[in-house]
Amino acid sequence: MLFASCGGSGGDAPGSASSTLALEEVSNGFGQLVPHTIHVVDASRTPTSDIVAIRSMRDLTDNLVPGNTVLPVARWPESATLPNGQPGNHFLYARFTQPLAVRTVLDTSPGAQATAGFGGAVSVVAIDPITNTSLAQDPSSSSATRSRAST
After folding, report:
1. Pairing mode, if any, of strands 20-27 and 93-96?
2. CA 103/CA 71 separation, integer angstroms
3. What is the pTM of this model?
4. What is the CA angle 114-119-125, rounded to 5?
5. Can you give the chain as a three-state secondary structure string?
6. Cβ contacts of residue 82 below 8 Å, gap of 6+?
7. Among 67, 13, 11, which residue's Cα sits nearest to residue 39?
8. How far is CA 108 from the centre of its chain?
9. Which of 33, 59, 86, 106 could make a disulfide contact with 54, Cβ separation 3.0–4.6 Å?
10. CA 102, 134, 22: angle at the middle one, nearest 5?
11. pLDDT for 32-84, tens place per residue?
């Protein structure tokens, strides 16, 4: 996943060049969510115990064979439980290829403090690979909307 000029290293300095920001990993504390992983296959196309992160289509096509599918991602427990077993809210941890400029993520204006400095909504989107449509949950309501995914 790449984000063009998303406030990467030096991105908030006057006159600095834009850069590409890549997502390295997303975890929920219980395990890795992104990138997905798969067992590496050997020369005879038999799965080995080695695991590789799927970062490109080649990673997938080189290792996807019958009986060797993409490994499942870590799941959250159904209750509000932290990874250490204590009660608490679920969270996501994202690691990028370079630091984020704080001002591209958080709003320091007095009016934004009612929302802890977050200036925008978060949308969770799933894309159906067959129909190329997405089901996005509108964070301001309980309604879901369908839209055509861009190719």
Report:
1. antiparallel
2. 36
3. 0.59
4. 120
5. CEEECCCCCCCCCCCCCCCEEEEEEEECCCCEEECCEEEEECCCCCEEEEEEECCCHHHHHHHCECCECCCCCCCCCCCCECCCCCECCCCCEEEECCCCCHHHCECCCHHHHHHCCECCCCCCEEEECCCCEEEEECCCCCCEEEEECCC
6. 29, 88
7. 67
8. 25
9. 59
10. 35
11. 999 999 999 999 999 999 999 999 999 999 999 999 999 999 988 889 999 99
Q: How many CA atoms lie within 13 A of 137 on its CB side?
A: 7
Contact 145, 134 (CB under 8 A): no
Residue with tokens 């799933």: 126
d(CA 8, CA 16): 10
Tokens coding 113 = 């403090």
Tokens of residue 76, six digits: 């959250």
Model pLDDT, residue 87: 94
State both tokens at 75: 């799941």
